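pinned: reference chain
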Amino acid sequence: MKHNIKILMNSSLFQGVSEQDLEAMLSCLGANERKYKKNDIILLAGTRVTSVGIVAEGNAQITREDAEGNRAILSELMKADLFAEAYVAAGSAEIPVTVIATSDCRIIWIPFHKIVGACSTACGFHRTLIENMMRVIAVKNIMMNEKMRVLACKTTKEKLMTYLSDYSERTGKNKFKIPFSRNELADYLSVDRSAMSRELSRLRDEGYLEYHKNEFILTNR
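pinned: its structure tokens
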């Protein structure tokens, strides 16, 4: 687990924890690592989960399908990102989402009860972990509200411009790379891919933006 220390130091769960303390902490928490190949299912909707995951290497997506099999991408997971914490904290019997590896991945799993409960050696770091966990859940709730604002837009153009403008503000740059392919972006925005591609071309022609694959420049801000 020592080879993951540097990566985990960047996780929001361990904010404020020193590298030396983290090494001892991981043993106390019962952390374990699992490897997944690209397209492997990391978590399947309908299963029960009792641990939170942290991406140590690679990328993954949190997705959800409706009754007709239409897929929606809820979020993209990258190195040091935490996931599944809200469902575990809420005591959900079954998770409603699927987590899929979009590249070869290494995931660190930590039992949730080890994070929020005091251990036999009465480690002093549990208070920090609980505070960090509460902050992570609060931040993700804000981000989900922001996505709902995007999805509430009535037209594909409004969804695109709202999403791209928000992403630009989050990065602090007019030129940025989003974590989605065209198909994935359409799934994320819950729009038809062909209609979205036409709208992107129209926005470029009207001078709102420039793009190449998943790289964008907002030119009319």
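why pinned: The mean pLDDT is 90. The CA atoms of residues 9 and 17 lie 8 Å apart.
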